[in-house]
Design a protein that fits this description.
Elements: H1 2-6, E1 9-10, E2 21-22, H2 29-37, H3 42-48, H4 54-67
Antiparallel strand pairs: 1-2
Helix pairs in contact: 2-4
């Protein structure tokens, strides 16, 4: 199931500067995460953006979860 969800995340250098997006639409994953972090529910997002599907939101969350699964982080000095 997770692999099917992650197939909804696409990369195209001609769409949103190559950022990971939902199904080739102009909805970057980061935008979906910002909506959720602003306290919007999945249902509210789906009402406001009718071309999105519930699985798109779940895919964005799964994608973000996978990005955070690192063994350790190191501060980069400048």
């Amino acid at each position: 199931m997770n692999d099917i969800l992650l197939q909804r995340i696409t990369y195209n250098p001609d769409i949103c500067h190559g950022k990971p997006c939902i199904r080739g639409l102009r909805y970057p994953v980061e935008f979906i995460l910002e909506l959720l972090s602003s306290d919007m529910t999945i249902e509210e997002i789906l009402i406001d953006y009718d071309d999105l599907e519930r699985e798109d939101i779940l895919a964005a969350l799964l994608f973000a979860s996978r990005l955070t699964q690192v063994k350790s982080m190191h501060k980069i000095t400048s």
